[in-house]
Amino acid sequence: xxxxxxxxxxxxxxxxxxxxxxxxxxxxxxxxxxxxxxxxxxxxxxxxxxxxxxxxxxxxxxxxxxxxxxxxxxxxxxxxxxxxxxxxxxxxxxxxxxxxxxxxxxxxxxxxxxxxxxxxxxxxxxxxxxxxxxxxxxxxxxxxxxxxxxxxxxxxxxxxxxxxxxxxxxxxxxxxxxxxxxxxxxxxxxxxxxxxxxxxxxxxxxxxxxxxxxxxxxxxxxxxxxxxxxxxxxxxxxxxxxxxxxxxxxxxxxxxxxxxxxxxxxxxxxxxxxxxxxxxxxxxxxxxxxxxxxxxxxxxxxxxxxxxxxxxxxxxxxxxxxxxxxxxxxxxxxxxxxxxxxxxxxxxxxxxxxxxxxxxxxxxxxxxxxxxxxxxxxxxxxxxxxxxxxxxxxxxxxxxxxxxxxxxxxxxxxxxxxxxxxxxxxxxxxxxx
Amino acid sequence: xxxxxxxxxxxxxxxxxxxxxxxxxxxxxxxxxxxxxxxxxxxxxxxxxxxxxxxxxxxxxxxxxxxxxxxxxxxxxxxxxxxxxxxxxxxxxxxxxxxxxxxxxxxxxxxxxxxxxxxxxxxxxxxxxxxxxxxxxxxxxxxxxxxxxxxxxxxxxxxxxxxxxxxxxxxxxxxxxxxxxxxxxxxxxxxxxxxxxxxxxxxxxxxxxxxxxxxxxxxxxxxxxxxxxxxxxxxxxxxxxxxxxxxxxxxxxxxxxxxxxxxxxxxxxxxxxxxxxxxxxxxxxxxxxxxxxxxxxxxxxxxxxxxxxxxxxxxxxxxxxxxxxxxxxxxxxxxxxx
Lengths: 433, 338
Known about the structure:
The complex is a heterodimer of chains A (433) and B (338). Chain A is built from 16 helices and two strands.
């Protein structure tokens, strides 16, 4: 056959790897960093910037000064190592790290602070992660009483007294509901709890305390400092502000005139005043109002102020979530015959809070960072302590090492919070988008 | 429980304006601790060390009072106070006394109703310049850029001084000492001005202190001293004479080392009266007979405390200057113990 086909491929060619220039790092770099003159120039500029920063930062970080006892010794060590220029003086971190974490808390009580943090973690786990064992919810219910006891110490009975107040209120509420109806039972529960706290708890627990003096050594609030102070204020404010904020947001939407007026008034007043002003009120004005003999713990004052402050912001964030919910959801809840609280608990709040997660967590992060403002009223939080450390003649003149360390500590907490919020959003994603 | 305290307090708050607790000295003794307001951190005057123990020149005044009243210099609860919170804390009774580099002025003494019990450090505003600037007097600073803390009396003093001398300057406002130090060392301002003691403390920490000099001109009077509330004269006397005991001890040659020997009795009647082996000065104050001996045994005399914290024995190394005894040409002078 003259028109015989000279060559016919009878089997498929084996697949070849793509050209080296389009795969791996080179391919990625060509596609993303150097596709065009403009991008190439920007890439080179960026590389130079990164190099410039690192070339300054890394030699500064790698400094043979861990064992130094003072800034002068740091300088001698740097000179002895044959290096020159401005290098970090890490001796201050070695000497003061524990102080930056625990403040002036007595060293034999450090385990109490650590245990308190572990208990807070265990108490929050079942709330934050649905995989955590449900039994931990017992810890969740109890940690608001255990943690203050661990931190402040003293006899255990006053804390038990406060806890029993809630128990009394709960049982009155539960058993009076049938006889009195919901609203009256609620009022009766609250009243009985307050009667317990104000009139009964003190004498009864005092009597038990004099017989059974169980407790930990009392630690004054003034011993609180450093990161532990920031966490105490920050976590209390965070944990307190969410429920308070939800209540305020609901109150603001309420049809009851007085409730609504109170909530709107509170929210707008707090939001209209800077936090620093409220801190000054807590530290100085309250002092002037209260009689001189009355000692009202400065840290408790500050915690209350910061909690109220963040609750007002939280209320507005939650209100945003409520407003974003379609009206149909409210109507559906009504159509199912749910009463107000059940509708809120089962239908409205889960959705509204889900929408508000980014805003809520932003508020949390903001509150935690705002705790550094307490250094203005003389509390020694990490920033306040850095100033006190610099006042030690051995470390006078050290700036970046301390601020850098404090920045890293805060970053760890704030970054974890923001990561958690992203995890939560993914988990609760129900595909309405 | 805390809440009920608050609400209860709110209701009586309006009535509480004029209430003064009876006898600070009795309160302190009953409490077993002295509450003393100090600076949150100022080199040489008050700072916590690595173990959280407060040290410094102002701190020693608190310890002296604690030693006199309670016999234990460590029985002090230090309350760090900022410039903004210090006076309300004292007025409200949160602290029993304030020893916090506070300038004795007319309005603080009279209008704010405090009682300054003495001057433990005579300070004044000075100028720190690099020697490379070639300036030997503040009057040559025409046209200089000056780093200065905003909202302080130093700002006003500076304006006054430059105006009276007919020279100009350009202020660089700063917030904290640390910021000032960074700006000054980077050359963003030619001059840094604040209290001379703080300048000396900062200069001592520079890499090359010899390249910087504190100019001789002191442009303001800053008598710093401990203070108490108006109205409790017994307590005011206790604090005043605890401090005077330190000064008198230096004048009489009593030190923390020889006080134990001298307390058994000497030929000098004034030393005997001071240390309690003769007379009844302690009883008049409502204290033990050996109150002053305890003060000196715990913090030393004025000169020892000065040297240890801010003087030649420390890294700050401030000269005694105005703070020398009157016998050495300074201003430190204690009325006689008689």
